[in-house]
Design goal:
Layout: H1 10-21, E1 34-44, H2 47-53, H3 57-62, E2 66-69, E3 74-81, H4 89-93
């Protein structure tokens, strides 16, 4: 029996849930689990944010997120896990 008060940081819990969804050991992104975009979605960021993201693109690819740098302030999103279709990608990359 638990006693006392348990506080939950909802923001941190949501981030943890998204991270678990992206875990390649727990999720199969092949086939219907991956949404290939017919037209790549441009994501505008600052030059500093774009350069900070670039080294992590290969790691994101292993999680089902296919993106590439397209100029000094733009990331092109080409595919993502279908379960993340409602995600705000600008916020994600920021």
């Amino acid at each position: 029996m638990l006693t006392g008060i348990r506080l939950v940081d909802q923001h941190a819990l949501h981030e943890k849930a998204l991270w678990l969804l992206l875990d390649p050991q727990q999720t199969d992104f092949a086939g219907s689990g991956r949404q290939e975009l017919l037209v790549p979605k441009p994501i505008e960021l600052s030059a500093a944010e774009t350069s900070a993201i670039e080294p992590h693109l290969e790691e994101l690819h292993s999680c089902g997120i296919e993106a590439e740098v397209f100029g000094p302030t733009t990331i092109l999103l080409r595919a993502h896990p279908s379960m993340l279709h409602k995600l705000n990608w600008t916020t994600f990359f920021t």
